[in-house]
Amino acid sequence: MSEVYAARRARLRECCNAGGSATALVTRPANVRYLAGTAIQDAVLLLGAGEDLLLCRGTPGERSEDGRPDEALRVHSLPGSGGDPAVAAADLAAGRGAESLAVEEHHLTVTRHRALVSVAPLLRLTDLGGSVEQLRVVKDEEEISCLRIAAEITDQALAELLESILVGRTERHLALELERRLVDHGADSAAFATSVATGPHAGRRGHRPTDRRVEEGDFLSVCLGATYRGYRCEIGRTFVIGTSPADWQIELYDLVFAAQRAGRQALAPGVAYRDVDRAARHVLDSAGYAEGLAPRMGHGVGLENIEDPQLAPAAMGKLDACVPVTVEPGVHLPGRGGVRIDDTLVVRPEADGGPELLTITTKELLAL
Amino acid sequence: MSEVYAARRARLRECCNAGGSATALVTRPANVRYLAGTAIQDAVLLLGAGEDLLLCRGTPGERSEDGRPDEALRVHSLPGSGGDPAVAAADLAAGRGAESLAVEEHHLTVTRHRALVSVAPLLRLTDLGGSVEQLRVVKDEEEISCLRIAAEITDQALAELLESILVGRTERHLALELERRLVDHGADSAAFATSVATGPHAGRRGHRPTDRRVEEGDFLSVCLGATYRGYRCEIGRTFVIGTSPADWQIELYDLVFAAQRAGRQALAPGVAYRDVDRAARHVLDSAGYAEGLAPRMGHGVGLENIEDPQLAPAAMGKLDACVPVTVEPGVHLPGRGGVRIDDTLVVRPEADGGPELLTITTKELLAL
Asked: InterPro entries given for it (chains A, B) (predicted)?
């Protein structure tokens, strides 16, 4: 694996050189993990000023970390509390004769940026921008295989929940139960706070579970995901509680299903992000649900729950092969509830069979 | 409660006026919650430019929020995705004729700060610094009562775990079980990722649970806490698995216990933060464990897991009454394990009975 990280760092150094700064400081945790192969709290990565260096606090025995740092990377531990590793990195870059340092202005706070200036006043700080985020958009097969495992774990956890008795249980308990099952099946952790929404809550984006209990006739919508080796997937499903769904429930479900299918079918290399959004959104718009729709119909996933690309009306750019994204339209009717359907898929060319569905739990309207 | 939030905002406006800026923009989530009474994702608070205003995205039905916003506060919803509420706030402040705006430079990123400058180029941006964090240090009785309930919940969850069979179970399962019990007993959620550490892991600060199983003769250390109405407490305990602890275990436990007691006993209004740290640290230092000790022996708790004050060697300042803090020394022996003992207490004057212990689970060395 070591070559993978070294190759990623080499690509970033190329970006930096092209941008006029030979030296870069990476501080955003997911970006550090992507380039160094480890998640150590507060660790930062200094590239291009002599050998690449991972700066962090404390010694390995004291630290809690996910994965071992790439062996080709020198790790520099600041003793004890040891101050801010980013400040230490700027100091070091200046000491090594760097003239400029590209930093992640979208991650560094104003106060921290000022501390860098103050420790290395002759170093010209430039903006690295979203260079690492851009590198992260297209995944390699190793990354996709982590996402595939994350999705399998998620599907298993959900399948087990569906076999259990749901009526009378609270949203909070169902959410905890799902999270326990994710870990049971080998997840590092839940990728994000599991959402379980019943009755009038169903279909709400990011609904935080409450003490409301599942009742006969409810819509029940769940959204969950596992993290596996740092990679996070996402699934959302909506069910009906009881034997026969009401007509309005069937109609609403069919509509959201059609929207989600349209979004999935739009996924192909070369398709504009906004066209995927439009494909799903148009179905809901045409049925009179334009208002209250989510600002985006999907987004990239990887080392973060939500990353580029954004599948949204104003998003610029086109899909590539090997980009994992969610497609997740939903409709919520205030006071009545609603439907959300959410999959994680990998964009693949038609010749390879089209989009690869990672979250394979059925999207039939199950009555539980 | 509405007067409480209005009074907090009035105090902050006084700070701002004293600092030369009549208008302030609060962006750090815990600070917004403290002043507005609600936690809405990405919400920001604009103070002093006309009436106080909470700016957020989306309408109430679409938002997930903890607690209702203070009714005396006008809520301004940006439609749909609606851009950055902080940028909208700067625009509004400029439109209302404000000349300067104090912002939280320790929270705003460089990129976001630049967006404020760009939307309101004539507005002079100054630094609000940690003004709100400073207001938050001393808690009112309402806040302390939330912390007291959080601690009760935490004690209950821990008590139940201790009654169950532990040998053979993994750290990860025990951690999940504790988190489930926290929610069972009424927590909003776990305050932070529950740490369960067995055998050679025991006593490590912030240890992330692994698949290691509890064995006879192990030290078992746990660290957990509940969030109740946004307030977060923390408890850490170490146990021995099996009937009779080894001599080295008893010695190490007694030492850490003595250090933790010394720290607790040092808590009083007027005592320097660093002297509390020193009281606990000195006991461990004298026994030859100076190296590898945590950079601080405790810290404030409240709407965040870790807030001011820091009980650390270089910390400046003195304790006040009604400041809740942790006291949490520990020793970890690489390869063997170790001991951590952690309580949440509220500083109270001697006349009121001295420090109030919120986390009342026994600190005897239990053999489980």
From this structure: Creatin/AminoP/Spt16_N, Creatinase/aminopeptidase-like, Creatinase_N, Pept_M24, Peptidase_M24B
